[in-house]
Structures are given as structure tokens and as C-alpha cells.
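REQUEST FORM: STRUCTURE PREDICTION
Request ID: SP-0412
Submitted by: Lab K.M.
Chain count: 1
Length (residues): 58
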Amino acid sequence: MLYNPTTQSQYTPPDQNTHYFIEKIAEQAEEIGKLKEQVKLLGTQKSAAPDAICADVV
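STATUS: Completed
RESULT:
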């Protein structure tokens, strides 16, 4: 990205909306981490018992 001196003077500090979206993104990242762990666990269970039927994750 090229330096643009006008963007430096137009900087505004984060407002409540920005904090709200950051909080929501953090919550989604946490949920993604939990889902990744569940997928990893299901993959381990599936490989340990290939003929077993895995229940749906709720």
C-alpha cells in the first residue's frame, strides 16, 4: 500500500460500532476454534472405528 498523506489526517479513533464488531469477530473466532476441535475429535473417532456411525454435533 502506498503512503497517502491525506489518510493520516483523516484518522478517527475507533467508536462503539468498531468495538462491537471486534467483539463479534472475537466471538466467532472462538466458535470456529471449538468447531475445529469437534471436527478433529470426530475425525479421530471415525478413524478409530471406521464402521461406527457418528452422531450429529449439535
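NOTES: The CA atoms of residues 34 and 50 lie 24 Å apart.
Reviewed by: T.R.
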